[in-house]
Amino acid sequence: MKFSFVSDKIPSTGAIVATVTDGGQLSTTAQQFDNKTGGALNRAINSSSFKGKKGELLEILAPSGIENSRIILAGLGNPNELKATDFENLGGQLYKDLSAKGEKVVCFCADDASVQGASGDNAGALIAYGALLRSYRFDTYKTTSKNDTKNSLDEFSVFSADSASTESAYTELSKVAEGVFFTRQLVSEPPNELYPATFAAQAKELESLGVKVTVLDESDITKLGMNALYAVGMGSERESKVVIMEWNGASEKSTEKPLAFVGKGVTFDTGGISLKPAAGMEDMKFDMGGAGTVFGLMKALAGRKAKVNVVGACGLVENMPSANAQRPGDIVKSYSGKTIEVLNTDAEGRLVLADVLSYTQEKYNPRLVIDLATLTGAMIIALGNDIAGIFSNNDTLCEQLSSAGLSVDERVWRLPLADCYDKLLDCDAADMKNIGGRAAGSITAAQFLQRFIDKDRPWVHIDIAGVAWATKEKAIAAKGATGFGVRLLDRFVADNYED
Ligand code: BES
Ligand code: ZN
Ligand code: ZN
Q1: 133-147, 325-339, 455-469 — which is least confidently predicted?
Q2: Any atom of ligand 1 within 6 Å of the Cβ of 348
Q3: Does the CB atom of residue 434 touch ligand 1 within 6 A?
Q4: If you placed Cys at 475, which of 92, 313, 443, 446 could pair as Cys (CB 3.0 to 4.6 Å)?
Q5: Of ligand 1's atoms, which has the minimum distance to the CA of residue 286?
Q6: 253 vs 341 pLDDT, higher one
Q7: Contact of 72 with 17, CB cutoff 8 Å
Q8: Is 276 a catalytic residue?
Q9: 175 is an active site residue
């Protein structure tokens, strides 16, 4: 879709969107169109149940007096209550609605003070951003009918008083959208195409943005002693990889240590010898969602040249049953030196993360570590598919994440960590076992990770098992891979850690 930004003249063809606030109050442009069309807008409002409430749309087709195909009135509700996400959602809603109607060209009129919302956001930019986010489709493997794409909007323009500032706000946001799309694409790829080597190769795309990429292969992994990660990949024909991405955007004089983001990248999780049931196993292609989010975040931060130093580290493995696979009962020595009895080979994500977490802390001494993982099915039972669980040793980080989550509508909710959960991992044969029993499954998984976090290192674990993939569409995302976490962490960085 092509985006453009204008302030001199509203296009005289295609669809027009003008806004209406509570009680049917027309914006300046809406009023002008009402005049030009002999009062068609007010007549349409009076003949319908449209009240200008947030989320309401009213269409006036082929109005006389003008050449435009249609005027859409978009309700904003009370302008003093409008948040940035309301504008994004409106953009997404318009994209979906107009595409379904076969419309190709639209101009959104953001000329009025009532379209600025409570926080003075650039509404025009946010609406374009929402439409952009909603426009993503994964159709790489459709060779015959790319039906959806045929019927979609081609051109989205925004009319505003200051088109230059709307455009520059949009350009910044579009870099974040590119990160979200990168994640959605990686998570959508089928597991025969996306496996550790091909996944790692995708990181190379980030080099052109100035990201330094290092890929460790199995010989490096075994030499370094990342045996817990290595053991997960033993059953697979595909070689495991560890990808390290560094973005150094902070000013030269900054002495701050980097922020570290660590991702679980299990490109397919069969469960291994502790095999999962067949029904629904195909979902486990998205078990690399944590790593997918770290890749997308790096793309967003580098794309918008964020003034911060960040390292992204991902463990990429395929968890398969085979003659070479690890067995329940195996004891592995992790990179940290701690030993783990693997009682269930399906609790593999924590084994992968354990080694990448230890390595990242040792090598980069980061000022904080945030890991992302589709770690436990229990997370979906606890919080469902809209809110991700967070687990942390640091209250400030949790507050920063909660607040970023509310700003971008990628919400998180904190669950507890405590010694009573930690001790469920104690083990007779080794330093710990990799499962803690049925109770509090997401918490014991987080406790396992915490055993690999240095004392005093600020750390958050985000379990995205429920939110990485959506079976229902949302205003700014079609069904499928959501890219959850990219916007959340981009905002978390922007609000708290940039120079
Ligand atoms: N990748 C799964 C978790 C998962 C399940 C994510 C469903 C998304 C949807 C993880 O590796 C796993 O299998 N966890 C086990 C842990 C158990 C064996 C302790 C689980 O959640 O059942
Ligand atoms: Zn598993
Ligand atoms: Zn898994």
Answers
A1: 133-147
A2: yes
A3: no
A4: 92
A5: 8
A6: 341
A7: yes
A8: yes
A9: no
The model's confidence at residue 280, banded by pLDDT at 50, 70 and 90, is very high
Ligand 1 in contact with 374 (CB < 6 A)? yes
Ligand 1 pocket mutation, candidates 346, 352, 435, 448, criterion most atoms within 8 A of CB: 346
Is 344 a pocket residue for ligand 1 (Cβ < 6 Å)? yes
228 C-alpha to ligand 1 centroid (Å): 17
For ligand 1, atom 16, name the residue with the nearest CA. 347
- Written as six digits, the tokens of 211 are 């990201």
- Tell whether ligand 1 has an atom less than 6 A from the beta carbon of residue 465: yes
Tell me what the pLDDT averaged over the chain comes to. Answer: 97
Residue having the nearest C-alpha atom to atom 7 of ligand 1: 377
CA distances from 164 to 46, 174, 458 (A): 36, 15, 40
- Which residue among 36, 70, 104, 276 is the active-site one? 276
Ligand 1 geometric centre to CA of 377 (Å): 5
- 463 in contact with ligand 1, CB cutoff 6 A: no
Closest atom of ligand 1 to CA, residue 344: 18
Task: Give the amino acid at 360.
Answer: T
Distance CA 230, CA 318 (A): 10
pLDDT, tens digit, for every residue of 199-232?
999 999 999 999 999 999 999 999 999 999 999 9
Give me 411's structure tokens.
Answer: 């919400």
Report the Cα 497 to chain-centroid distance in Å. Answer: 19
